[in-house]
Write a structure and sequence with these properties.
229 residues; alpha/beta; six-stranded mixed β-sheet; four-stranded antiparallel β-sheet; 34% helix; globular; ATP binding
């Protein structure tokens, strides 16, 4: 089974001199294709730093980070952006849908940025919205959708480019518990279809929905447990 994310002796520091902060401290990690992984920890544990590295938004101070087989230290900013756009589908707590734009065009936007013809992009977007139960809302703007519906649109946007990895940062954080459960149900279904999902969360109950849970404390992995097959 191929490895989608690999970290080897990864350290990430901020600041300098006596004020240096070691956000990640010698982390080793492999995430394989088809895994559903939750990265959990308290504020300041290193979750956000790990997310930024996995999401190709930053590079390590030392050690090696590979995403979809690419060593981040060997990529310039343009290639990092390309890897981020092609290999990763992002889902955020705040949805980040385009305002005054309907659900269909929100989902089609990443394809349009890639140069996919508008008609084809919208066709693929409609297919994805329908799959996620949002086909009948495709003409609705984000202000006309509930929080759960907006998150489904955001997930459709993340999936439409067929990325190697779905990276979800606190995806239920802005939702009530029932709607959050529905979103997690959707992630479980997507994982069963073979999608690789990495979920960043501080919520232990949400993390339990993943098949593998990695706990960070002070920049180190202190626990890595998987459900029995």
């Amino acid at each position: 089974m191929s490895v989608v994310v690999e970290m080897s002796k990864v350290t990430k520091t901020f600041g300098e001199g006596s004020s240096i902060v070691r956000a990640l401290d010698g982390v080793d990690l492999k995430i394989k294709k088809g895994e559903f992984v939750a990265i959990v920890g308290a504020s300041g544990s290193g979750k956000s730093t790990m997310m930024n590295l996995i999401g190709c938004l930053d590079k390590p101070t030392s050690g090696i980070v590979k995403v979809a087989g690419e060593d981040l230290s060997e990529l310039n900013d343009k290639k990092l952006t390309s890897l981020r756009n092609f290999a990763i589908g992002f889902v955020f707590q705040s949805f980040f849908l385009l305002p005054k734009t309907d659900a269909l065009d929100n989902v089609a936007t990443p394809l349009l940025y890639r140069g996919v013809p508008a008609r084809e992009a919208r066709k693929k977007a409609m297919t994805m919205l329908t799959k996620l139960g949002m086909g009948d809302r495709h003409t609705h703007q984000s202000t006309e959708l509930s929080g759960g519906q907006q998150q489904r649109v955001a997930i459709a946007r993340a999936l439409v480019t067929e990325p190697s990895l779905i990276l979800a940062d606190e995806p239920t954080g802005a939702l009530d518990s029932n709607t959050g459960k529905q979103v997690m149900d959707l992630f479980e279904t997507l994982n069963k279809e073979g999608k690789t999902i990495v979920l960043i969360t501080h919520d232990v109950d949400i993390a339990k929905r993943a098949k593998r849970r990695i706990t960070l404390r002070d920049g180190k992995i202190i626990n890595d447990e998987s459900d029995a097959a």
